[in-house]
Design goal:
It contains six helices and no strands. By secondary structure, the chain is an all-alpha fold. It starts with 9 loop residues before the first helix and ends in an 8-residue tail after the last helix.
């Protein structure tokens, strides 16, 4: 019978969730550009798809920050790790604020004309969206630097999430050792 592995605790979720907001938030502006290049009626679904990616990416950023804060409580501290960890945490909080703001602004660009039952001219819509993409680019740079700082924590400083081994994993490891006959100990 298949036993599902336990859901990891919040402090171990960070490496599992961080890649989703990064990917979603980097893809969203590409979808916006596609939406701008098409005729307004054809491009509108792309703009709403980009908004959905931004909403999901921003929600993922909230989960990434929360799980990162929990994981940071368990990290081995000292010297360069402290400095880099603090920088990464501050940048992650900035990412969360920036993309929350960008998502609200883009939703307003898309929804306010509909709510007011007025259509903006293509020139005004394009100009607003291009200016928005400029701000989005600045946010994307912050996101990239935050991800880079996190990568440095893992690959340069050796900081990893501490995940307790599951009982099932321990049983499988013991079975593999017994079945293979190689336990790493001398049997003499």
């Amino acid at each position: 019978m298949f036993n599902a592995p336990p859901i990891p605790p919040m402090d171990a979720l960070h490496p599992l969730v961080i890649h989703f907001p990064i990917a979603l938030l980097f893809v969203a502006p590409l979808i916006i550009i596609v939406g701008l290049l098409l005729r307004p009626k054809q491009g509108r679904p792309y703009l709403f798809a980009a908004l959905l990616l931004m909403v999901l990416g921003t929600a993922g950023a909230y989960l990434a920050v929360a799980s990162g804060e929990a994981a940071a409580q368990l990290a081995e501290r000292g010297g360069a790790v402290d400095v880099l960890l603090e920088t990464h945490e501050e940048m992650a909080e900035t990412v969360r604020i920036v993309f929350t703001s960008l998502t609200v602004v883009f939703a307003a660009i898309l929804l306010i004309p509909s709510l007011m039952k007025r259509s903006l001219s293509r020139g005004v819509t394009t100009a607003l969206t291009v200016v928005f993409l400029g701000f989005y680019g600045a946010g994307a740079l912050i996101l990239a630097n935050t991800a880079h700082a996190g990568g440095r924590l893992v690959h340069e400083q050796g900081v990893t999430a501490l995940m307790p081994p599951s009982p099932q994993g321990a049983q499988q490891a013991a079975f593999a050792t017994d079945a293979g006959g190689e336990s790493g100990e001398d049997d003499d």
